[in-house]
Amino acid sequence: MTSELFRQCAKLFVVGFPGTSPDAPLERLLDEGVAGVILFKRNVESPQQVAALVRGLKTRAGRPVLASVDQEGGRVARLRGAPFTTLAPMRELGRRADATVATRVGRVLAYEVRSLGFDVDYAPVLDVDTNPANPVIGDRSFSRDPHEVARLGVALAQGLEAGGVASCGKHFPGHGDTAKDSHLDLPSLPHSLQRLREVELVPFAAAARARLASLMTAHVIFDALDPGVPATMSQKVLGPLLRRELGYDGVVISDDLEMKAIADHFSIERAAVEGLKAGVDLFLVCHHADVQRSAIEAVVRAVESGQVSRERLAEAGARVDALVARFVHGPEDLVARLGSAEHRALAAGLDVESSGAVDPTEVLAHR
Description:
This protein has about 375 residues and is an alpha/beta fold. The protein has helices at about 5-10, 25-30, 45-60, 90-95, 100-115, 145-160, 195-200, 200-210, 235-245, 260-265, 270-280, 290-305, 310-325, 340-345, 360-365; strands spanning about 15, 35-40, 65-70, 70-75, 75, 120, 170, 190, 215, 220, 250-255, 285. A hairpin with a 2-residue loop joins strand 4 (about 70-75) and strand 5. The protein is globular and about 55 Å long. The two termini are about 35 Å apart.
């Protein structure tokens, strides 16, 4: 029998799984209370299959469960091909410099992922494109101008949320100037706090003012803030900076704890415990069931030992509950809306081919 404490800790995790149908480890974690699931390209065969998969997971859970996906447009889009709208990279949207269009893109994204049963879209990227050699952000960013990233990113996020899907601005406090990909290594940045306030933090400050549903942490070390500690695990980054200085009170979501920036330098168990202490409310663990269970169990032990306070656990759980209450939809069947006259009218003028570049997260999703 699953203890109440285990359920409270499991509620702080969103998990991935390997195939196009749920396996036994996923079903067990759902029974034990995980907050939700994230789908990747490896889980996708067709719109109808994805819709049935999400609907089945929600029905089996018998409770509100977050279904989430990375659908940014451009090279990060798990759902591709007709009837989905092929969106250009956000850099192209930045060149148009039209917040009304950005909001409309958000509405299109919401319509499409919502039709398949998703409640959360991990978009938009709020990183500023300041480093041409950045291997992972690049054209996923709206602009080199932090104020344009703020304006267009918030507009797109508001379009998503107006369409009934939680947005997730990423990657706090900024992944745009790194020369390493945190999927593969642990980047660090030497910038002063003044520089961060003038550039990297501008879009996240706007997101906080707009009260966007969620923000995602970066597995990046900011030497001026907390030397040697990635933002995901840093009490100095997520507490004084994000919660107090920027005043953000929404859900803080970690990037995937199985990325090499964490997995090759820290135990994932330690990352989960330190992340929760720092202020992360919801953790992504996207690939392996044994790792997911181990991370949850580490949080249980940390609460039992007093390393993590019951108050911090309750605070994180309350934020997750609020996100679920606001955005989770039941196991509806809306997939037939895709390709309808309403859908075509909504997407008209946005069907622009992207660069087709390879996204490393798609590659890693199949490891």
